[in-house]
Write a structure and sequence with these properties.
The complex is a heterodimer of chains A (about 500) and B (about 575). By secondary structure, chain A is an alpha/beta fold. Chain A is built from 18 helices and 7 strands. In chain B, helix 10 links the parallel strand 10 and strand 11. Classes of the chains: A alpha/beta (about 500), B alpha/beta (about 575).
Chain lengths: ~500, ~575
C-alpha cells in the first residue's frame, strides 16, 4: 500500500488529461468535465490516505479544519459559478487565477515553516530554491490576476499605466528577487518547527524575512506588469496569467514532490501558453510586444498614420431596409464583437437568426479569435443566447465564403473586419488576420457612431460602396429589424 | 492620386542614373502644364481606301468637355457616313482644307500614320496621336523628330487592364473579325445555317478560325451567329475556354509548348509543333468550307499556315479569308487587297476590312482616343506624363527626341516600402488551423533556440545536481508539458473559455498542498493553530473555491452549447 498514493495521483493526472482532451469537440466536452471532477475527487481522497500514512501527519486532528475550509470554499465557489453572468466570465476566470497564485504563496510559506513532506533524498538547497520560485510565481500570478480582474470589471481604468523606465524597474525587481535568494538558500537552520513559533520569533528569523520581502516584491512586479497593459490586450493577459497559475501549481508540486501537482501544473501552464500564442497570432503581434508595450503605449502611435484621417462617403441605412435585404438574402453572415455583448443583443440576434433560418436562409456566424474579452468568449455568449454551435464558425473556416455571401451584419465589431489590416502597410494593425466581409455583396455595420476601435485605427470598411451603416444602440437596432421581420 | 512611392521616385530622379531617370532628364520637363495646347485638329484621311475618321460627333462633344477646341476638315467623316453638319452641331469648327488643320492645330488626331504629303504640312512642335507602327516606319520617326514633334502611337498602347478602353488594335481586330465572316458569306455560294425546306435540307457551313485573339473570337461569334458550325485553333491552350464559350469546337494538338508572351500575344513556335499544326490544318482543309486566318506575330511577317496544297485540297466553292494579308498573309496564295480564285477556292486578302465597316470603326476608334486623352488630361490640362505607363510605352517621339522603343521600367529606382519591418505577407499565410489534432510543437513559435537551451539546461542539471527527487520531478514535469501542449492544441477554439475555466478548476489541485500542510503534526506533537497550519487552511479555502467554481461554471457553459434542432 506504500505506493498507493503515487498510482492514485497518476490515475488522477490521466483523468485531467482526458478532461482537457474532451474539450476538442462540443459532443465530448461534458464528459471531459466529468473526468475532471472524478480526478479531483480521487486526488482529494488520496491525500487523505497519504495523510493517514504520513509519518508526521495526523488526519484525526486536521479533519475538522480540512472539512471546514473545503466546505466554505465549495460554497463560495458554487455561489460564484451559479451567479456569474456569461458576459462576466473574463472576470471570474481572472479572479480564479489569482486564487491559484495565492494558494501557491500560502503553501510555499507554510511548507518553508513546516515541511509536510520530509525532504528526503534531496538537498535542502534544491528544496529552498523550489520554495523561493514557487512563492515568486504565485505572488506575481496573484497580484497580476487581481489587477486584470479589476480592469475587466471596469473598477480600474483600462488605460495602461506607464511609469518612466518601467522596463528597467522590472529588471531591477527581478534581479533583487534573484539576489535575495542567495542568502536565503544558504541558511538551512530554520526549517523545522518554525511554524509553531510566535510572530516575533518569525520576524527575527532573517531567512524568513527575506522570503516575505521577496513575496512583497514579486507582488509589486505582478501589479506593475499588468497595470502597463492596455484594455484591448486583456485576452492575452488573461491567457498568460492562466499559464502562470499553472506554473505556480507545478512549482508547488516540486516543493512537495507531488507528481499530480506537477502534472496538473504543466497541463495548465501549457494550455495558457497556447492560448496566449493563439491570441497573439490573431493580432499579428509577438508576446513580447503585448507584455512590454502594446497599442497606446510606447510601441504604436494610435490614430496616426492612416488612422483617424479617413474621409469619404458613408452610406446610412435603416432597420426596415436591413430587414428587407435580409429577406432577400440566401447567405447571411453575422460577425459579432464584444459590442454585441455590451448591448446585450445576442438574444435578439438569435431571434433574427431563427426567423431567417426558418425562411430558408443560411445564417451563420463568423468568430474572430480575439472577438470578446477572453478566448472563446463570443462562442459562450452565443451559446447562452441559444445559437446552435454548428452555425458558429471560426474565421478561418468561413473567410473563404465571404465572396458568396449576400449580406453581412457586423455587430459591435470593428478592428476584426478592417480591410486596412490586409492592404495598408502603415496601419498599426497591418498583418492581423481579419474577416473579409468587404468581399461580400453587402455589409451592414451596427455602430453607435463613427468612433474607432480598440486599436485606434480608422476603418476603411465604413466607406466602401457596399457598406451601409446602421447607427444607434445595437440592441435597439436588432430589435427594430426583428419587429420588421415579424410583420412581414 | 499619386502613391508615395512615385512621389519619392520623382524626388530621387535628380540623383538617379537609371535609364528611366536619364530618359526623363533628356526629355526636359515631363509635364506640359502651360495649358496652351488645346487645339485639336482632325484631318480627312488621305490613304487610299481609308474610310475611317478619328472623331465622331459624340467624341467631339467629349473632347470639348475635356477642355479642348476641335476643328475638323470638311468631309473628313463623309466616307464613314458622318456628315460635316453633325460635327458642327456637336461644336467642332469645320474648316475647308487639310492645310488649315495642319497649320492651326497643336494636337492632330488621325487614324493612319501620316502620308508623305501630310508629313510636309506638319508644323514644328505639333503633337500627333494615331496608329503609327514605329517598327515599320523608321523614316517617319526621323522626319517627325526633325520637326520637334511629339508622337503617340496608338498601336503601342500596352495590353494592361487599365488601357483596355484605349486599345485601338482590339477594337479594330474585333471589327475585322466580324467583317471577315461577312465577306466570306458574300462570296460563299451556300447558306451558313443548315436549312430544312420543302425542297430538302442543307447542311450548315463548316468554318475553321485559326487564331483565337480578338479578331478570331469576333469571327467565331459572327459565324456562329449566322448559323455555321465553327471550329477554332490557337497555339495558346488557355483560350480554349473562350472559344468554347462562344459555341465553337476547340481543335487541339497532342503537343505542349508554352505559347504566350508576357503581353498576351501569341509567339513563334518550334518546328515540331509547326509540323503537327500543318498536319491538322491539311486534314481540316478537306472538311471545311471556310477558313478564316488571323495569325499575327507582333513585329514579324505573318506565319504561313495554309499552304498551296491545302488550298487545292479544299472543296470547290470554299473560301479562305486572310486577315493577315497586310503582314504577308497566313495563306500561300494570298494577295493583299485582292480576291482571287484558285481551283474554285476564293482567297480574300482584303486589308481594309475595318474600313468596310467605317461608321462603327470610326466610332470605336474615336472613343478609344477620347479615353486615352481623358486619362492624359490632368489638373493642368493635357500633358504628356512619362510616369504614366500607357504614355511611356506608346510615346514614339517626345518633343523631337526619339523614345521608341520605350525605356525599361524603372523598377530599381522605386524606393523600398517605408514600413519594412512589418511582415510582407499579411493575413492567411501564418494562420494554420489549430483545430485538427496533431498540431503539436510544429504549431508553436518556430525558433530552435528554446529547445537547445532546454536541452542544455537539463544536461547542466544532470551534471551538477545530485538530487534523485528533483530528477524525478523534472521528468514528470517535462513530459507533462509536452502532453499538455499536444492535448490543448486539439481543443476547438469555440471551447477556449470552458478550457480556461476547467484549467482553473484542475489547478485547484493545489488544495493537496494545503491539506498536507494543515495535517502537519507540530514539532512538540501539540497541534493547534500554528502559522503554517493557518497558511495551509487559507490555501485550502481559495483552492476549493477554484475547484467548485471552475467545474460548476464549466458545466454551466457546456450545457449551453447545443446543436441545431436539439
Amino acid at each position: 500500500m506504500d505506493y498507493f498514493p503515487n498510482m492514485a495521483y497518476l490515475a488522477a493526472g490521466m483523468l485531467f488529461i482526458l478532461s482537457l482532451g474532451g474539450l476538442s469537440k462540443q459532443e465530448t466536452a461534458q464528459r471531459g468535465n466529468t473526468y475532471g471532477i472524478i480526478g479531483m475527487i480521487l486526488a482529494v481522497l488520496t491525500v487523505l490516505v497519504g495523510i493517514e500514512q504520513g509519518d508526521n501527519l495526523d488526519l484525526g486532528k486536521a479533519a475538522p479544519l480540512l472539512a471546514g475550509t473545503i466546505l466554505v470554499g465549495f460554497v463560495i465557489g458554487g455561489f460564484l459559478a451559479a451567479r456569474v453572468a456569461m458576459t462576466a466570465m473574463p472576470q471570474l476566470v481572472a479572479i480564479l487565477h489569482s486564487f491559484v497564485g495565492l494558494a501557491a504563496v500560502f503553501v510555499g510559506l507554510s511548507s518553508y515553516l513546516d515541511p509536510a513532506v520530509p525532504v528526503t533524498g534531496g538537498s535542502h538547497t534544491v528544496h529552498l530554491i523550489e520554495i523561493w520560485l514557487g512563492v515568486a510565481i504565485g505572488a506575481i500570478t496573484f497580484t497580476g490576476s487581481v489587477i486584470a480582474w479589476a480592469k475587466l470589471r471596469g473598477s480600474m481604468s483600462g488605460t495602461p499605466l506607464l511609469l518612466p523606465g518601467r522596463h528597467l524597474l522590472n529588471l531591477l525587481v527581478v534581479l533583487v528577487i534573484v539576489g535575495l535568494a542567495v542568502p536565503f538558500i544558504q541558511d538551512t537552520n530554520a526549517l523545522h518547527g518554525a511554524g509553531h513559533a510566535s510572530a516575533e520569533d518569525l520576524l527575527s528569523s532573517t531567512p524568513f524575512v527575506f522570503l516575505l520581502v521577496m513575496t512583497l516584491l514579486a507582488s509589486l512586479l505582478g501589479i506593475h506588469l499588468v497595470m502597463a497593459i492596455g484594455g484591448a490586450d486583456m485576452p492575452v493577459v488573461v491567457s498568460m496569467l492562466n499559464s502562470y497559475s499553472g506554473w505556480a501549481a507545478a512549482a508547488a508540486g516540486f516543493m512537495l514532490s507531488n507528481d499530480l501537482l506537477i502534472i496538473t501544473g504543466a497541463l495548465v501552464g501549457s494550455s495558457g501558453a497556447i492560448l496566449s500564442y493563439i491570441m497573439c497570432r490573431a493580432m499579428n503581434r509577438s508576446i513580447w510586444n503585448v507584455i512590454f508595450g502594446g497599442f497606446g503605449t510606447d510601441g504604436g502611435k494610435p490614430a496616426s498614420g492612416s488612422g483617424g484621417t479617413l474621409e469619404g462617403q458613408v452610406l446610412e441605412t435603416a432597420a426596415d431596409e436591413v430587414a428587407a435585404w435580409a429577406l432577400g438574402a440566401k447567405e447571411i453572415m453575422i460577425v459579432p464583437g464584444y459590442g454585441m455583448a455590451v448591448a446585450r443583443a445576442q438574444h435578439l440576434v438569435n431571434d433574427f437568426t431563427k426567423i431567417l433560418r426558418d425562411r430558408g436562409a443560411n445564417v451563420r456566424y463568423a468568430i474572430h479569435p480575439v472577438a470578446g474579452r477572453l478566448p472563446g468568449h463570443m462562442n459562450v455568449l452565443l451559446a447562452e443566447a441559444g445559437v446552435p454551435y454548428d452555425i458558429v464558425l471560426e474565421m478561418e473556416e468561413i473567410n473563404d465564403d465571404c465572396p458568396k455571401t449576400d449580406l453581412v451584419l457586423v455587430i459591435g465589431a470593428n478592428d476584426i473586419v478592417n480591410p486596412g489590416a490586409e492592404t495598408d502597410e502603415s496601419s498599426p494593425i497591418f498583418g492581423m488576420p481579419v474577416i473579409q466581409v468587404w468581399k461580400s455583396s453587402r455589409v451592414v455595420v451596427f455602430k453607435r457612431g463613427m468612433g474607432v476601435g480598440y486599436a485606434g485605427v480608422a476603418n476603411p470598411l465604413f466607406f466602401e460602396d457596399n457598406t451601409h451603416m446602421l447607427f444607434g444602440d445595437a440592441g435597439a437596432s436588432v430589435q427594430d429589424i426583428v419587429s420588421a421581420l415579424r410583420e412581414k | 492620386m499619386e502613391s508615395p512611392a512615385i512621389r519619392m521616385q520623382k524626388a530621387q530622379d535628380v540623383f538617379d542614373l537609371s535609364p528611366h531617370a536619364l530618359f526623363a532628364v533628356a526629355c526636359g520637363s515631363t509635364k506640359n502644364g502651360d495649358g496652351v495646347l488645346v487645339k485639336i485638329g482632325i484631318p480627312k484621311e488621305t490613304h487610299d481606301g481609308e474610310r475611317r475618321v478619328a472623331a465622331t460627333p459624340d467624341t467631339v462633344e467629349k473632347l470639348l468637355k475635356l477642355g479642348f477646341e476641335v476643328q475638323i476638315e470638311s468631309g473628313a467623316g463623309e466616307a464613314a457616313r458622318l456628315p460635316d453638319a453633325g460635327f458642327a452641331a456637336a461644336g467642332a469648327t469645320v474648316v475647308e482644307s487639310a492645310e488649315e488643320i495642319w497649320s492651326n492645330s497643336e494636337l492632330v488626331l488621325k487614324v493612319r500614320p501620316p502620308q508623305p504629303p501630310e508629313l510636309e504640312q506638319i508644323q514644328e512642335g505639333t503633337h500627333l496621336i494615331s496608329l503609327f507602327f514605329p517598327a515599320q516606319n523608321g523614316h517617319l520617326i526621323e522626319a517627325l523628330a526633325g520637326k520637334k514633334c511629339t508622337v503617340l502611337a496608338l498601336d503601342q498602347i500596352p495590353r494592361i487592364s487599365r488601357a483596355q478602353k484605349m486599345d485601338v488594335l482590339s477594337s479594330m481586330a474585333n471589327i475585322a473579325g466580324y467583317r471577315a465572316v461577312i465577306e466570306a458569306a458574300n462570296h460563299f455560294g451556300s447558306f451558313f445555317s443548315g436549312q430544312i425546306t420543302a425542297a430538302g435540307r442543307t447542311r450548315p457551313a463548316q468554318v475553321m478560325v485559326i487564331g483565337a485573339g480578338v479578331a478570331g473570337l469576333a469571327a467565331i461569334a459572327a459565324a456562329r451567329g449566322l448559323g455555321a458550325e465553327v471550329r477554332a485553333f490557337d497555339v495558346r491552350p488557355a483560350v480554349k475556354e473562350q472559344v468554347e464559350s462562344l459555341g465553337a469546337r476547340f481543335l487541339e494538338l497532342d503537343f505542349e509548348e508554352p505559347a504566350e508572351t508576357d503581353g498576351g500575344y501569341a509567339k513563334e513556335m518550334s518546328d515540331a509543333f509547326l509540323e503537327a499544326e500543318y498536319a491538322l490544318f491539311a486534314e481540316q482543309a478537306k472538311e471545311v468550307d471556310i477558313i478564316i486566318t488571323t495569325a499575327l506575330i507582333p513585329g514579324k511577317k505573318a506565319p504561313e499556315l495554309i499552304t498551296k496544297a491545302m488550298v487545292e485540297s479544299m472543296k470547290p466553292g470554299s473560301i479562305v479569308v486572310d486577315l493577315a494579308a497586310e503582314q504577308g498573309g497566313n495563306c500561300a496564295y494570298t494577295q493583299p487587297d485582292r480576291a482571287i480564285e484558285v481551283k474554285g477556292v476564293t482567297i480574300l486578302g482584303y486589308t481594309d476590312l475595318t474600313c468596310r465597316l467605317a461608321t462603327h470603326a470610326s466610332q470605336l476608334f474615336a472613343t478609344n482616343l477620347v479615353n486615352l486623352l481623358s486619362d492624359m488630361v490632368g489638373e493642368e490640362g493635357y500633358a504628356v506624363d512619362i510616369d504614366d505607363e500607357v504614355v511611356r510605352k506608346s510615346l514614339v517621339v517626345n518633343k523631337g527626341v526619339v523614345s521608341w522603343p520605350p525605356p525599361p521600367e524603372p523598377e530599381k529606382a522605386v524606393p523600398p516600402p517605408p514600413t519594412r519591418e512589418v511582415p510582407q505577407k499579411p493575413a492567411p499565410a501564418p494562420v494554420t488551423k489549430p483545430k485538427a489534432a496533431g498540431h503539436g510543437t510544429s504549431n508553436g513559435p518556430g525558433a530552435i533556440w528554446p529547445v537547445l537551451v532546454s536541452v542544455l539546461a537539463l544536461l547542466g542539471i544532470g551534471a551538477t545536481v545530485d538530487d534523485p527527487q528533483l530528477v524525478h520531478n523534472l521528468t514528470v514535469f517535462v513530459l507533462a508539458c509536452f502532453v499538455g501542449w499536444q492535448v490543448v492544441w486539439s481543443v476547438t477554439a469555440a471551447l477556449h473559455t470552458p478550457l480556461m475555466s476547467v484549467t482553473n478548476a484542475i489547478s485547484g489541485i493545489i488544495v493537496v498542498g494545503g491539506m498536507l500542510q494543515v495535517a502537519v503534526l507540530q514539532g512538540d506533537g501539540g497541534g493547534g493553530l500554528s502559522v503554517s497550519v493557518l497558511l495551509g487552511a487559507a490555501a485550502i479555502l481559495v483552492a476549493s473555491i477554484n475547484i467548485a467554481g471552475g467545474f460548476l461554471v464549466t458545466q454551466r457553459m457546456l450545457k449551453m452549447f447545443r446543436k441545431e434542432g436539439k
